[in-house]
Every structure is written in C-alpha cells, then in structure tokens.
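lol ok so funny story. i was supposed to be doing the assay writeup but got distracted and ended up predicting the structure for this chain instead. priorities right. anyway since i did it might as well share w the group, maybe its usefull for someone
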Amino acid sequence: MEGRLVAARLRSLPPQRVYGVFRELRRLGINNRRTRAIVRDWVAARPDPAFDAVKYRRSFSVAAQHAHLPLPGEVGTVLFDWRGPRRYETPILEAWRRSHYEQRALYELPYTVAEGLAAQHGINRSRFLSGIGRSSPTANGSGCRRPGYGTTSRRSPWTSPPHP
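and the output, tada:
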C-alpha cells in the first residue's frame, strides 16, 4: 500500500524532482527492496529513457546504479561508458555524442542540455541563443524539442520571452 502511494506521488512530480528524491535516497543509504522497486517502476514508466539519459544524465545514472537497474539498449552505454561506441543508433544519443566534438550538433539537443555544452565549448550566450532559435524544430519557446511539450500558452515567469 505504501509503495503504491509513493509511486503515485512520484508520478505527479516533475522528473528533476523525482531524480532529486532518488539522489537523496542514495545519500541516506536507503536501498531496500521496496525502494528499488519504486525506482525501477518509475524509470520503466518514463516515455523516453534516451531523452532522460541526455537531459538528466547524472541523476539518471545515480538512480540506475543505486537501484541496480537493467537499462534498455544504448542507454546504459551512454550513462556508464559513453566514449566507447563510435556511433549511436538513437538520434538524440548520437547528437549528444557528436556535440562533444562538433558545435553544430549542439543545436540538435534539448535547450538546457545544449546550453550547458555550449558553455563548455566557450560559445557566448548571444551566439548560442541566435543559433538555437534558427535551428529549433518546434520554435515553441519552451526549450524542449520533444513533440507535445511546450505547446501550451502558459509561460514560466523565470524564462525570457522567445526571440523573434
């Protein structure tokens, strides 16, 4: 009963908060059978593990390692041995891999991931924003390029208005 209540509450939270809960569980050393089952079921219910592996990379790897999760396809490789393969079949994983070597690949990634990598590449913010605005496939201003995301008219008060 308690496990189902916890799982229901986790489903109502945004992914970054859930991953924060998982990191805290690891920090506290809580890793019983119920905890592993909750983490396993929540991760299994995520719609796109490859997207999570790119966007929430460190948190996803901490949760997977702590709960001893078997990861699908290339996701485990991206999280724990990303320099090994020469190429990934999953487009977002391949764009993420290429973005470490070529700046153009940055613009194929979700905004927040690309923003961090642009800073690592030394690309100034105004150049990055003009490039990401031109290459955005959805141009919805939400920073997320997944279909169906950011399509509402509601905007966060912390984000700047979209560039024309």
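The radius of gyration is 17 Å. Residues 138-164 have pLDDT under 50 and may be disordered.
back to the writeup now i swear
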